[in-house]
Amino acid sequence: MIKNLKKINSIALVILLFVAFSLSAITAQAKQRIIVIDPGCQAIENNQKESIGPGAWKRVSEDMVGATGVTTGNKEYDVNLQIALKVNELLGDNYKVELTRKSNDVDMSNSDRAMIANTLKADLYISIHASNPNDASKGITVICQTKDNPYSLTNYSNSRLLADTLLGSLADKTGAESYKVLESDKLMGINWCTVPNAIVNVGNLNNQQDDERLAEEDYQQKIAEGIVAGIDSYFSQK
């Protein structure tokens, strides 16, 4: 009887050690993953034109300051940074995280931001925005490249997977309206990036309801949790 108990205890100990080792290995692997989070826009206006993608003849300028809340007057660059800092805090325990900016007083082009992810050979690049310049529609949208993007032919499947997981997780966490993933070859943040990437529009400051919700600390936290859940879901499917 005593021998059997010792044998059972030994087996249990081996199992516990195996589980502990496995969890440590998983955590170590996650810590090796590099996530670059880009709080879109900035306080400094920059209307200098840049190529829409590597080697492209077409040059465009963008509104780097972004939108202003129709009700709150909050600046998009500020909202984006607030959410990005929350994402950084949540991701910090399990991933190596790099923010493209930590203040609003910067002067960076979209290609500058993407190049940070490229240089670090990041596992993911996620750019956070909070507006739809074309209308006042509300809700969350996620944008990734098209399958035939001429500037990055190898990123599509991973970028599309990332966009899908982000949209689903954000909808679950926030309860906000969400739309299908949009695909585009017209955005410099996508075209200049050589790692899997997505642009997340967490709402629309041009819409009164979204503007008011994005001003709430608790709602920003839910958005951050949704982004983190989307990242975790992405890696669970790799």
Automatic annotation (TrEMBL):
It comes from Pseudobutyrivibrio xylanivorans DSM 14809. GO terms for cellular component: outer membrane-bounded periplasmic space. This is N-acetylmuramoyl-L-alanine amidase. The keyword Hydrolase applies. GO terms for biological process: peptidoglycan catabolic process. Keywords: Hydrolase, Signal. Residues 1-30 form the signal peptide. Residues 114-232 form the MurNAc-LAA domain. InterPro entries: MurNAc-LAA_cat, N-acetylmuramoyl_amidase_3. SMART domains: Ami_3. Coiled coil: none annotated. GO terms for molecular function: N-acetylmuramoyl-L-alanine amidase activity.
